[in-house]
Design a protein that fits this description.
The complex is a heterodimer of chains A (428) and B (574). Chain A is of the alpha/beta class and 428 residues long. Chain A is built from 15 helices and 16 strands. Chain B folds into two domains: 218 residues, MetI-like (MetI-like fold); 238 residues, MetI-like (MetI-like fold, Orthogonal Bundle). Classes of the chains: A alpha/beta (428), B mainly alpha (574). At the A-B interface, strand 6 and helix 2 of A face helix 11, helix 19 and helix 20 of B.
Chain lengths: 428, 574
């Protein structure tokens, strides 16, 4: 099989304030061969979409090379078409006009534009909607237009950036099966597909290979081939094995990183925003039947209707606060976690407050400063500056925001957003 | 935040209703009443004429301060007007029938017209004293600020989310408390934006409203406007430059200590979850928020407002029950009163017109109206051709946008009649055709509305749509036709509508331009009004104003409104 696309040692960073650089992609390597569907799987914000934009030629890497059919990618290449997460349809064009746009850009004769567009509309199941405007269509139909627009130019590579994540569950599943069916029948004039997703099951359902992405900066940490015939059955044991395997793979890496962080817990540890509500919710679900304090991560994620990238930060926060332990693909409540689950609101607040003081150095630090000051108050910038010495500006903002929401719940200290100041007094 | 188009475009109907006619009659009658009084009052005032005004640089800061204060007072009056007028219109359907068309007519009347017919009346309030002149000046600035503020507030009150109102009712808030705690906060951010636009508009007219010359009356109130008028009369270019500098300083100070803090403060009233990446900041507001002195000073006021919320007038509670019953009687009374008022107004207009105007004069003004309209149309087209591509280019480049946008906003606020002398000298020197070459002055100011609306439109174009263009290789002419122009169309339209309104208004100043003793004179409705004002011919001023307001409303209804609703329907990006 010939390779359609080669990505070698690609590095991409964005400039930050103060001359700093935020590294988004670091040393990424991958290939896409003819006849393959490759999935890029990782948490949102992990740089998958950035990689896709590089492949589409919409952005340029700072280092490394991207090669499409033997030629370096130096701009939007003909033969690479993209399907967008938010559909990206032009509201002032009808379905037909939207689909025709790419063909007009190719400068084809009028008659050919029309016949090819109608054929694509027919293929994707949009018959009868040619003269409708996007706003008249449901989300699923809109994304079908997105597909038709991409397919109509007969691209060699179809890039899909989370194409199903803006759709409801049923519609998304419907569209996935249709697409796989067309692909399996060889009806799509496409040689290879690259799919960005944060949904593990979606990746296992559709892809021949799944590449796992770690975040900040993104690296490919595993390349898992899915040896299952299409159409795939979500309920088959083999399917579930793949999902579990990927879960463990993804959590193992994160748990290891979390361990290191918690071991060296310091004031400047970045915290991702998780609300005390989310923590309480997960603790309650964990302590109740059928889990009784211990659960398989994929199971509880499914039951709580959480995506991986929504579940991980919550689990992480619980681990940090020593309310739960994450081991392999499992999450288990600690003694404190169980007491939290059983407690009344006031007891919960107390447990939370103690956990903050002993395990979140930043919270303890702020409290100490407030205790020491005569006014018992301190401006936000006092701590923000401190954090910004160690992390980018928005990470510092997020960390502080997280600590504020935790401290409010634990009643450890309070924060006045108008005055941008921390204080010990509770508003009366 | 977008600038609102005039009422007649938002109204969604094409043909004038009887309410529009009634509103037009009332405005006309009102103006005529003023003009009538004025005619009997025209007499030379010897107190503060332009001859007394000295162009001494040491006096300039003082002048600037006085001008700034006048604008502030006018803004305060506009705010009071907005809060009362717009609230009345929004709360009372009966009143809205009349008040909204009235606003539309008022918005279309050339602002300078207000000055010429009311100045003399205000002067007569305190003969021989500065006070009356000050009132006239503040009133003129008020007329350039109030209408769009009131309309914005009215629109916001009409669109307060249902769940907020219902929550207020469930909590048992009185109508008074609901207004201050729910409705007014909701309407605040758009109101502040419109205040900023109004302030910019006010600057243009401050230069004329301080130096009032009506008939034999010549007044120059100490201020930047009079300074400029005298400087133009004396052909004193350094003095004009100094005035520009002073004006720049005042605009900057206003921005820093009034509008920035207001914007930053009002950010909290923004409804919706989408947190702005870059919320407005203001050092003044931060200072105020951190100072306990301010807390201490505002505490009694807060307390008073909280007390007032507890006050439940019995009337409000019963209203729901009695409304059905009293509505017929009230309706009849209301219509009878309006009917009588309308008849009286029509009679007044009729007798005024019969006594002082002829059919010939009406035909003449309509003809001149078409001439001015041709000017406005051609220039808006030219300005669009120039600024649309530039605006798109700038808007797609964030770094450039950050530089261009504040500059364009300043240029829009900049009283461009300061550039008239330059135009006059060039026309005289090169012996150019006055009717053609005075015309560009019409769009000197208004063109910036086109630029910064297009910039805003291009800036808010979704990243994904631009990516689609790139991904599918849409370039060149196809890109402009399919992607760029449709995407900015709604924004462009708002800009063009505002610009065209501005150009009509500017025609009163721009069709007659002075530089020292040289006066250039183009044919047009604006020049007609100016001439009538200078010669104190009030019937002609009134006629000119009425015809111009008529033109503006008709153009809005027949041309801009269909386009606007097309843009709203088809081109609005969600």
């Amino acid at each position: 099989m010939t390779s359609l696309l080669e990505v070698q040692n690609v590095r991409r960073s964005f400039p930050r304030g103060g001359g700093e650089e935020l590294l988004v992609l670091d040393d990424v390597n991958l290939t896409l061969k003819e006849g393959e569907i490759v999935g890029l799987l990782g948490r949102s914000g992990s740089g998958k979409s950035t990689l896709l934009r590089l492949i589409a030629g919409l952005a340029r890497p700072q280092g490394g090379t991207l090669t499409y059919m033997g030629a370096p990618i130096e701009g939007p290449a003909q033969g690479v078409a993209m399907v967008f997460q938010g559909f990206a349809l032009f509201p002032w064009m009808t379905v037909l006009e939207n689909v025709q746009l790419g063909l007009e850009a190719l400068g084809l004769p009028e008659a050919e534009i029309r016949s090819r567009a109608l054929a694509a509309i027919d293929l994707i199941g949009l018959d009868g909607y040619e003269s409708a405007y996007p706003r008249e269509l449901s989300g699923g139909m809109r994304q079908r237009v997105g597909f038709a627009r991409a397919v109509v130019v007969h691209p060699n590579i179809l890039l899909m950036d989370e194409p199903f994540s803006a759709l409801d569950v049923l519609t998304a599943e419907n569209l996935r099966t249709d697409l796989i069916e067309l692909w399996g029948n060889g009806k799509l004039p496409i040689k290879g597909i690259m799919l960005v997703t944060h949904n593990i099951e979606e990746a296992v359902l559709m892809c021949d290979r799944v590449l796992l992405f770690s975040s900040s900066p993104a690296k490919i940490t595993a390349d898992i081939a899915i040896h299952l015939p299409q159409p795939r059955d979500r309920t088959s044991p083999q399917f579930e094995d793949y999902v579990d395997k990927i879960y463990v793979e993804m959590t193992a890496k994160r748990v290891e990183r979390m361990r290191q962080q918690v071991g060296a817990a310091a004031i400047e540890m970045p915290l991702s925003h998780v609300s005390p509500n989310q923590i309480s919710g997960l603790i309650e679900a964990l302590s109740a039947a059928p889990y009784n304090g211990k659960a398989d991560l994929p199971d509880i994620a499914y039951e709580q209707e959480l995506e991986v990238d929504e579940l991980f930060p919550v689990a992480e926060a619980m681990q940090l606060l020593r309310l739960a332990e994450v081991e392999g693909g499992d999450i288990k409540l600690t003694h404190m976690g169980k007491r939290f689950a059983d407690g009344e609101l006031n007891e919960r607040k107390e447990i939370f407050s103690r956990a903050l003081q002993s395990h979140v150095p930043l919270a303890a630090h702020i409290r100490k400063v407030l205790d020491e000051r005569k006014s018992h108050s301190a401006p936000k910038t006092r701590f923000l500056d401190e954090l910004e010495d160690h992390m980018p500006e928005d990470a510092a903002e997020e960390t502080l925001k997280t600590v504020v929401s935790w401290a409010r719940f634990g009643e450890l200290f309070s924060y006045d957003d108008d005055a941008a100041a921390f204080s010990l007094e509770n508003p009366t | 935040m977008k600038i609102l188009p005039p009422v007649s475009i938002e109204a969604r109907r094409l043909l004038p209703s009887r309410w529009d006619l009634l509103a037009a009659m009332l405005v006309l009658a009102f103006i005529i009443a003023f003009a009538d009084v004025s005619r009997s009052l025209v007499q030379p005032l010897s107190t503060i004429t332009s001859h007394d005004l000295s162009l001494d640089q040491a006096l300039l800061p003082g002048y600037a301060l006085r001008t700034a204060l006048r604008m502030l007072i006018a803004m305060g009056v506009s705010l009071i007007f907005t809060l009362s007028y717009a609230t009345w219109a929004a709360k009372n359907a009966r009143a809205a029938n009349l008040l909204v068309p009235l606003l539309d007519i008022l918005q279309s009347v050339p602002i300078l017209g207000f000055l010429s017919v009311t100045a003399v009346w205000f002067l007569s309030l305190s003969p021989g004293r500065v006070f009356g002149a000050e009132l006239a000046c503040v009133f003129a600035i008020f007329t350039s600020q109030a209408w769009n503020m009131a309309f914005s507030f009215y629109q916001s009150l009409r669109t307060v989310p249902e769940d907020l109102t219902e929550a207020g009712r469930m909590l048992g808030l009185s109508a008074w408390a609901r207004f201050w705690r729910i409705e007014a906060p909701y309407a605040t951010p758009p109101l502040i934006w419109n205040m900023m636009v109004s302030m910019a508009g006010g600057w243009f007219f401050v230069t004329v409203s301080e130096a009032i010359s009506v008939g034999k009356t010549n007044i120059a109130l100490p201020g930047i406007g009079s300074w400029i008028a005298v400087a133009i009369e004396q052909r004193n270019i350094p003095a004009i430059l100094e005035a520009i500098l002073a004006m720049l300083v005042v605009i900057l100070v206003y921005d820093q200590i009034l509008f920035r803090p207001l914007l930053a403060w009002a950010d909290r009233f923004q409804i919706g979850d989408d947190q702005d990446d870059d919320p407005p900041q203001s050092w003044v507001l931060t200072m105020l928020r951190r100072s306990s002195l301010i807390d201490w000073m505002t505490a009694p006021f807060d307390q008073m407002m909280r007390w007032s919320y507890r006050w439940h007038p019995p009337h409000f509670g019963l209203r729901g029950a009695t409304r059905e019953h009293d509505s017929r009687i009230a309706d009849i009374t209301w219509y009878v009163v309006l009917g009588v008022l309308g008849l009286y107004a029509a009679f007044e207009v009729y007798s005024f017109a019969r006594a002082t105007l002829s059919w010939h004069e009406l035909l003449l003004t309509v003809g001149l109206g078409f001439l001015t309209m041709a000017r406005v149309v051609v220039l808006i087209i030219l300005a669009s051709l120039v600024w649309t591509p530039i605006g798109v280019y700038v808007g797609l480049r964030p770094r450039l946008t950050r530089i261009v946008q504040p500059v364009a906003q300043f240029l829009a606020a900049f009283p461009n009649n300061l550039l008239f002398p330059l135009a006059v000298s060039l026309i005289v020197a090169w012996k150019l055709n006055v009717n053609i070459w005075l015309s560009p002055l019409l769009v000197l100011g208004p063109q910036w509305y086109i630029l910064f609306n297009v910039v805003a439109g291009a800036r808010t174009m979704p990243r994904e749509l631009l990516d689609v263009g790139d991904n599918f290789g849409v370039r060149g002419l196809l890109w402009w036709k399919r992607v760029a122009l449709p995407a900015i169309f709604p924004h462009y339209l708002t800009g063009a509508i505002t610009a065209s309104g501005g150009a009509w208004n500017a025609s009163v100043l721009a069709e007659v331009a002075n530089w020292g003793k040289t006066t250039l004179h183009a044919d047009g409705l604006g020049a007609y009004i100016t001439d009538a004002t200078v010669s104190g011919n009030f019937p002609h001023v009134v006629l000119g104003m009425a015809v111009m307001a008529f033109f503006v409303v008709v153009v809005n209804r027949l041309f801009w409104q269909p386009l606007y609703w097309l843009a709203e329907r088809k081109y609005r990006l969600v």
